[in-house]
Each structure stands twice: as structure tokens, then as C-alpha cells.
Amino acid sequence: MCCGKKRATLTAPVTGMAQRSPEQAAAYPFFRYIGNTALTTVGVHTGSIYRFAAKGAVQQVHPKDAESMQDIPNLVECKM
């Protein structure tokens, strides 16, 4: 006999970026790391951790954190 609880977790709704409308997702800017090593930074307003594993890595950033991200060396806003 199968436990229905495991099956229910497979069909549970997904949270985060996947559920944002295209308009909402467009409000979240992208940043590209142009440095030579990895970079990890914390959003000043949200406390979100943004990890750029290597040169060229791109992350979508919460709009509240975007202004402070512009002050980080080797991190540039980009269009996707």
C-alpha cells in the first residue's frame, strides 16, 4: 500500500521565481559577474544570498537589492 503523503508532496505548488508572472519577473534585474574568482554577496534589503560561481555568471536580483549591487566591483547590470 502506498502512502499518499509522498505523492502529495510531488504535486505541491512551487514557490519563488517559477510562479512569478512575466511582468513580475521582468522587474527583477540581472547582474553579471566579470571578476576572475567566485563572488558571494548578501542583499542589503532582503538578506538574499547571491552566488556568482565564476566569471560570466548571471543572477537575477530582487529589485530592492539592485541599487546596492551596482556598488559591488566587477558586478554589472545586464539585460537578458
Q: Can you describe what's shown?
A:
The protein has 80 residues and is of the alpha+beta class. It has one domain. Helix content is 24%, strand content 24%. It has a 3-stranded antiparallel β-sheet, with no helix packed on it. The protein has a two-stranded antiparallel sheet with strand order 2-3. Strand 2 and strand 3 form a beta hairpin. The chain is globular, with a radius of gyration of 17 Å. The chain starts with a helix and ends with a strand.
How is the topology of this model organized?
Blueprint: H1 4-10, H2 22-26, E1 30-33, E2 39-42, E3 49-52, E4 58-60, H3 63-69, E5 75-78
Antiparallel strand pairs: 1-4, 1-5, 2-3
Could you describe the largest sheet, including whether it forms a barrel? 3 strands, antiparallel
How many structural domains does the protein architecture include? Answer: 1
H/E topology pattern: HHEEEEHE
- Beta-strand share of residues: 15-25%
Mean pLDDT: 82
What does the overall shape look like? globular
Count helical runs: 3
In the sheet with the most strands, the strands line up as 4-1-5
Query: Can you give the helix content as a percent range?
Result: 10-25%
Rg result: 17 Å
How many β-strand runs?
5
Name the poorly predicted regions.
7-17
Distance between the termini: 48 Å
| Coarse structural class | alpha+beta
Multimeric state of these chains?
A: single chain
